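Researcher: If only I could read backbone structure tokens as easily as an amino acid sequence. Walk me, if you will, through where the backbone shape changes along the chain. I have put the entry right below:
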Amino acid sequence: MIRNAKDKIVYVGRASGRGTPWDVLKKRKSSHRHRGEGTFDFADVQQSKAANRGAEDVIFNRERLAAEAEGRTLLNRINPIGPRNQRGRSYVNEWVREQQ
């Protein structure tokens, strides 16, 4: 995710790769189109791609609602999991399972 100067989340995304979470985030930041928008940070580390997608969707929806309540919008162009994605619920369930 990316936080602005007021510590508000302005973008929610996911990343994967080799190394520590900070290594992966550094690589993601270097090529991200919003790299000048604020400070990059991560909320959590998942063990599977499905859980990663589920976490992104849950965090995105939470932050989208918070932003809308404050009259802001996130920089994200698309939803992490589209409304017609038949596997969408399974991604969120996988993330919930990893949280237990």
Observations:
- Residues 75 and 90 are 26 Å apart (CA to CA).
- Residues 2-99 form one domain.
- The beta strands are 2-3, 9-11, 39-40.
- The mean pLDDT is 92.
